[in-house]
Amino acid sequence: MSTSNVTAEIVGPYAEALLAIAQDNDLAERFGEDADALLSLLTTSDELTQFLNNPLVSSAAKKGALKELVRETVHPLMLNFLMLLVDRGRILLLTDILRQYQALLRELKQTVLAEVTAAVDLSEAQQAALRQQVIEMTGAHQAELTIEINPDLLGGVIIKVGSQVVDASLRGQLRRIGMQLSSATV
């Protein structure tokens, strides 16, 4: 069995347990916000990630650091969950567990995740229009956007929802025109 399969078999039950706790306590949205905050912290701090993943660091030190860092920002039940992960030696899977929790929460809320690549920062109105377009495109009740800026697009956006990609970028349009021109001259 591959490492990724083993990881998935471990991550899934933890994420599902976290969602069950959240639903039982009417905290699904709050835990989603906590997961966002924790993921942001983990992705911006390589030192924290290395510290938590280091097998030579004691559980007590990991718990102490987590309590200091997130006690004021996450719900006490989420903090208890983090302590459980440390106790069980699963804290190194925290990022995967939180991402899986977010996926389960999106599924519960019938929300799709759209990865948007834009040439420039998008205004709130543009983001709202994109969300609406994604909802119409997918039939979902809600849409979440993750936005990445790539000036190489020249203008427009690329929207990816699952395996579906809509390239409405200027670069994509120029590429399509170029392909049409090259096939017309043959």
UniProtKB/TrEMBL annotation:
<comment type="function">
    <text>F(1)F(0) ATP synthase produces ATP from ADP in the presence of a proton or sodium gradient. F-type ATPases consist of two structural domains, F(1) containing the extramembraneous catalytic core and F(0) containing the membrane proton channel, linked together by a central stalk and a peripheral stalk. During catalysis, ATP synthesis in the catalytic domain of F(1) is coupled via a rotary mechanism of the central stalk subunits to proton translocation.</text>
</comment>
<comment type="similarity">
    <text>Belongs to the ATPase delta chain family.</text>
</comment>
<dbReference type="GO" id="GO:0046933">
    <property type="term" value="F:proton-transporting ATP synthase activity, rotational mechanism"/>
</dbReference>
<keyword id="KW-0472">Membrane</keyword>
<keyword id="KW-0066">ATP synthesis</keyword>
<dbReference type="InterPro" id="IPR000711">
    <property type="entry name" value="ATPase_OSCP/dsu"/>
</dbReference>
<keyword id="KW-0793">Thylakoid</keyword>
<keyword id="KW-0813">Transport</keyword>
<dbReference type="GO" id="GO:0045259">
    <property type="term" value="C:proton-transporting ATP synthase complex"/>
</dbReference>
<dbReference type="InterPro" id="IPR026015">
    <property type="entry name" value="ATP_synth_OSCP/delta_N_sf"/>
</dbReference>
<protein>
    <recommendedName>
        <fullName>ATP synthase subunit delta</fullName>
    </recommendedName>
</protein>
<dbReference type="GO" id="GO:0031676">
    <property type="term" value="C:plasma membrane-derived thylakoid membrane"/>
</dbReference>
<dbReference type="Pfam" id="PF00213">
    <property type="entry name" value="OSCP"/>
</dbReference>
<keyword id="KW-0375">Hydrogen ion transport</keyword>
<keyword id="KW-0139">CF(1)</keyword>
<keyword id="KW-0406">Ion transport</keyword>
<comment type="function">
    <text>This protein is part of the stalk that links CF(0) to CF(1). It either transmits conformational changes from CF(0) to CF(1) or is implicated in proton conduction.</text>
</comment>
